[in-house]
Amino acid sequence: KQEVTQIPAALSVPEGENLVLNCSFTDSAIYNLQWFRQDPGKGLTSLLLIQSSQREQTSGRLNASLDKSSGRSTLYIAASQPGDSATYLCAVKPDSNYQLIWGAGTKLIIKP
Amino acid sequence: NAGVTQTPKFQVLKTGQSMTLQCAQDMNHEYMSWYRQDPGMGLRLIHYSVGAGITDQGEVPNGYNVSRSTTEDFPLRLLSAAPSQTSVYFCASSYSKASGHSYNEQFFGPGTRLTVL
C-alpha cells in the first residue's frame, strides 16, 4: 500500500532563506507527483506537477524534483518571503488508479 | 468562472443528525471528488465521480453517500452524523477536454468545517 510521508511537520525560517521541503513515498510505481499549497481557511492550490518520466519542474522561485528510485521528492523554495507561509502538501498518483495518496503536509512559517 | 464552490463553510451537528454538503463547479469538469482532512493526516478520499450518473467509493466511504445527477453538482450526504466525522471536507474537480484541463489538474473548493457533537 502506497504511503506518503512529509517531514518535518512544521518548519520556521527567517525571510530570505532558501529552503527544502521533503516528501517520501513507499512505492516507486507512480504516475505523477504533485505539490500543493494550502492557506488557512482556503482550498488547495496546485503548485507543481511532475510526471513519472520527469526529474524536475520549475515555477518561479519554486523547484520540485523527483527521484522515483529512492521514493523521494523535494520542493525547493528560493529567497523565501512571508507570503510563502502556508501548509505544503505532496500527493502521489499511483499508476493505475485515479485516487491521489496524500502526505500530511509541512506547515511553513517565514518570519519577517 | 466561480470555480469550485462549497456550502456551507461551517456546520455544527448533533450526533445522529443528517445533512448534505453541497459542491458545485462551473468548469464542465467530468471528475469530481470529496476528501476529508484531519489533523496530522493527509487528505483521504471519500467518494468520487468520473461523470454524471457514475460514482465510486474512495478510501473512507462509510457513513457517506453521494450522487451525481448533473455534471455541475456533487453533493455529499452524511446519513447519521458521528463525532468521528468531525473534519474539514474538500470537494475537488478536474478534467475537461473543452477547457484543456487535464485530470491531473485538480481544482479545490474552500472547504466545509464540520463539527459533530
Written account of the structure:
The complex is a heterodimer of chains A (112) and B (117). Chain A is built from no helices and eleven strands. Chain A is mainly beta. The radius of gyration of chain A is 13 Å and the shape is globular. The mean pLDDT of chain A is 93. Chain B has 117 residues and is mainly β. Chain B is globular, with a radius of gyration of 14 Å. Chain B is built from no helices and eleven strands.
The portion of residues assigned to helices of chain B is under 10%
What integer is the average pLDDT of chain B?
91
Please report the distance between the alpha carbons of the first and last residues of chain B. Answer: 36 Å
Which descriptor suits the 3D outline of chain B?
A: globular
Extended strand count of chain B: 11
Succession of helices and strands of chain B = EEEEEEEEEEE
Can you give the mean pLDDT of chain A? 93
- Structural class, from secondary structure content of chain A? mainly beta
Q: What is the helical fraction of chain A, as a range of percent?
A: under 10%
Query: How is the biggest beta sheet of chain A arranged?
Result: 6 strands, mixed
Helical region count of chain A? 0
Q: In brief, what are we looking at here?
A:
Helix content of chain A is 0%, strand content 57%.
Walk me through the topology.
The complex is a heterodimer of chains A (112) and B (117).
Chain A: E1 4-5, E2 10-14, E3 19-25, E4 30-38, E5 44-51, E6 56-59, E7 62-67, E8 72-77, E9 86-94, E10 101-102, E11 106-111
Parallel strand pairs in A: 2-11
Antiparallel strand pairs in A: 1-3, 3-8, 4-5, 4-9, 6-7, 7-8, 9-10, 9-11
Chain B: E1 4-7, E2 10-13, E3 19-25, E4 31-37, E5 44-51, E6 54-57, E7 64-66, E8 76-78, E9 87-94, E10 107-108, E11 112-116
Parallel strand pairs in B: 2-11
Antiparallel strand pairs in B: 1-3, 3-8, 4-5, 4-9, 5-6, 7-8, 9-10, 9-11
